Amino acid sequence: MNHTETTTPVYSIPLKYRKMENLHIVFWLLKDVSWCMIWKPLGIAMIFPTLIIAIVIAWRTRQFMSELCHNLAIAVWISANSYWMVSEFFHFDAHIITGGITYKHLALIPFVTGLIVLAYYYLYYKPRHQEEEEIIEA
């Protein structure tokens, strides 16, 4: 083992966290399939475990800025996606707020929030912390 291998930080995902992340994918897919099939009760019910697990994952990875930023972006993406689904389920997505802006367009707020978080990471944080390169070991 050389010097680089012993001093490089490693992010290792414990098995119980990996299982939770895998379950998160199941909930997310159930939510989106429900949206596609217009299964309102299941789609709405799947918002909660999907979003809660996304927040827990972000919290658990907070010590690694790259993981935190990407997981926060996922959490706000799920929020935007869930709002958009609900707006379609209850048929207020096309209602006009002002001008050409509809209630569906409000989903842009969390979508753009996620882009801002990732822009912060890639354009500001990462260039200033090149020496702290994080290695992820799945």
UniProtKB/TrEMBL annotation:
<feature type="transmembrane region" description="Helical">
    <location>
        <begin position="106"/>
        <end position="124"/>
    </location>
</feature>
<keyword id="KW-0472">Membrane</keyword>
<feature type="transmembrane region" description="Helical">
    <location>
        <begin position="68"/>
        <end position="86"/>
    </location>
</feature>
<keyword id="KW-0812">Transmembrane</keyword>
<feature type="transmembrane region" description="Helical">
    <location>
        <begin position="38"/>
        <end position="59"/>
    </location>
</feature>
<protein>
    <submittedName>
        <fullName>Uncharacterized protein</fullName>
    </submittedName>
</protein>
<keyword id="KW-1133">Transmembrane helix</keyword>
